[in-house]
Amino acid sequence: MKRLVVALVSAGSLLISAAALAQTxxxxxxxxxxxxxxxxxxxxxxxxxxxxxACQSAAKALKGQERHDQMQLCMAQAHLxxxxxxxxxxxxxxxxxxxxxxxxx
Length: 105
Known about the structure:
Layout lengths: L1 H22 L11 H8 L7 H9 L5 H25 L4 H12 L1
Helix pairs in contact: 1-4, 3-4, 4-5
């Protein structure tokens, strides 16, 4: 039973990581003029509730306590991902709190 839970948590984390990687776009190496436009796009607030919906769909097949546990782990991972994104973008103070709150949904 423990192995099943560990496998589900690992799979959920991989799904969230893959979704986060799919959302990021690499910066063009040959177009320095595009950097300011890309920076403003990356500081825009993410779609509210998108990560929560992803967590709900990941835990859809589970029931009871396993579903609850998976949701908690998934949302904690989403919060951590948003915090890392805020740190990378050098957002500080109350703006960081608002960013993380709006990002994780």
